[in-house]
Amino acid sequence: MLRTDLESNSKRMKARIFLIHWFFLFVLLGNACGQTMRQDSTLEDTVATMLDRLNQISEYNSGKAEKAEDVDSLITTSLLDGLNRSSSSISYPFKKLKALNMNILSSSDGHIRFYCWNSRTGGTMIGVSTIAQYKTAHGVHAKVLFDAATDTSDEPGVWFTRIHTFRSRGAAYYLALGSAVFSTRDQSAVARAFRIGTDGLDDSVRIFLTEEGLTNKIEITFDLSKSSAGYESAIRFDTSTGQLLVRRVVAERLMTKCDLYRFKGKYFARN
């Protein structure tokens, strides 16, 4: 009888210890999650304050105390640092930043995300700054794709609007579609390829076979005043067929007829 009581007490003690361990584990996990959410929320508030300041600046008003280039650089630096510090930020909603017209879009697998905003530095040319965030086996990282405030190439930067994911031979590729505004008249549609490799984000992967050879992007430029409606979808990806549809441009005019590009094992080639 005494032995049975001892065994029963031992089992109860083990059960209590097990429950105590799980309780403290849940407390630690809860604290970690709470701390991470606070970190992402703080980053959002910091960048939102700067973005609101940037949105108040007119690129035509040289008398402003603050320059758009300075505020845009602060946003780039702060956002890049915060995204690199927090792995959870790649899935954080950032609703305040979206409300202030920052475009944030993610791939379907959640492995890559773009942050795009109007730098207010380009006049009629809309200078778009972009940060890419991506997930590897070693963690979550971020890098600047285009810094409109410091770029000297006379390129406006691309306002990305869609990311399409497709796989080939076990590798995931990401097609980012968007537009670039050079002036009130001149605009381009862009398809750009990305891949996450062992060394990080590969933003120069050449999977488009064009007349100029293999390249990492397809870009068509046209005159808005001469073009038909629907220029927002001048380049689009058909998920049902896996084809990239690129509208033709004749004499700066965007036509309705498209060139079809199909992925042929290693690259997209025109049919």
Question: Would you write up a description of this structure?
Answer:
The protein is of the alpha+beta class and 271 residues long. The protein has helices at 2-55, 68-85, 95-99, and strands at residues 103-106, 112-118, 128-136, 139-146, 159-168, 171-181, 186-197, 200-202, 208-210, 213-215, 217-223, 235-238, 243-250, 253-263, 268-270. The protein has a six-stranded mixed beta sheet with strand order 10-9-15-14-13-12, with no helix packed on it. Strands 5, 6, 7, 8 and 11 form a five-stranded antiparallel beta sheet that branches. Helix 1 (2-55) packs antiparallel against helix 2 (68-85). The longest helix has 54 residues, at 2-55. The chain is globular and about 95 Å long.
Short description:
By secondary structure, this protein is α+β, with helices and mostly antiparallel strands. Helices cover 28% and strands 38% of the residues.
